[in-house]
Amino acid sequence: xxxxxxxxxxxxxxxxxxxxxxxxxxxxxxxxxxxxxxxxxxxxxxxxxxxxxxxxxxxxxxxxxxxxxxxxxxxxxxxxxxxxxxxxxxxxxxxxxxxxxxxxxxxxxxxxxxxxxxxxxxxxxxxxxxxxxxxxxxxxxxxxxxxxxxxxxxxxxxxx
Length: 160
Hints:
The protein has 160 residues and is an alpha+beta fold. Helices cover 17% and strands 45% of the residues. The chain has an 8-stranded antiparallel beta sheet with strand order 1-2-3-4-6-7-8-5.
């Protein structure tokens, strides 16, 4: 469900609960890396939420005795958050769209994320021209940046 909340100065932010995320993205467990998206401002910015839990399959091998959420899955969560807000906006036109990842640049991992952490994927649009967009992404746990990247994506109409 998509919920909206009004903010000062006429700004309206919305939230995508898991059912709305599942409608926007083709990803499913175990590859869905976001649980909900909050503070959505069109395709300008949003915060994706991922609750990291010990019972996820990647922790069987990454790493036994010292579980660390894989960095590549953090990047995937960033890309899914950006993709979901773009699709949510584009699908309001009545046509179905899908987002394809084009580039991942300037990736930096600052510290590990572990079971029990709440990953917040802070996404901000850098620019968008027609069907190609570029987004700044930061993964944050308890106020500390754990990873950052720039993500490029292409938005295309889905074939019916």
